[in-house]
Amino acid sequence: MKRIRLSDYNTQLGPLIDVQHPLDYKEHPTLNSTNIYADNLLLNHKKYLEKGKKYYIICNKGFLSKKVVSTLEYYGYDVTQVIH
Description:
Blueprint: E1 2-5, E2 16-18, H1 22-27, E3 33-35, H2 38-43, H3 45-48, E4 54-58, H4 63-74, E5 78-83
Parallel strand pairs: 1-5, 2-3, 2-4, 4-5
């Protein structure tokens, strides 16, 4: 599993997806991110993601993003976990 620190992320690398629950995201949004709740992203990955593109996945505590990155890697996506 690939990981980078949030301080090393920039928007030129690829989209940043915050997988927190929408209510948590409203309280603790991540700058320059799009909020797609983890369950929604995993169930509808073909709707939100394209194979061959890079995506960066973050959440407030790191647990959800780790699960999402692991699953999406299994599905064949190029994803990197972003940690605080």
